[in-house]
């Protein structure tokens, strides 16, 4: 069964803020054309995660992987995201949603940041 990978970014009023996330989504999709990659936002931009999940569900997909493009796990990932997903799962029966840890907590990202800061 096909799994959709949602790259979840926070959102910002500044449209330039989106560029790195759009590049990540484009490069990941190019590297993995067999996967469906969807960039979505927690707030301020569209598609929102809620919209993206409902759209994928409407197209017949039921397996969803959420990859937060956050530096760490704060209130948004500890409280807001679980509350949103609880609401979504109540309206989308028989779907499976897997949430990964924030990208900033992965060792490879920490090492890349250290190298960039040298």
UniProtKB/TrEMBL annotation:
Keywords: Lyase, Metal-binding. Pfam families: CbiX. This is Cobalamin biosynthesis protein CbiX. CDD domains: CbiX_SirB_N. It comes from the Bacteria.
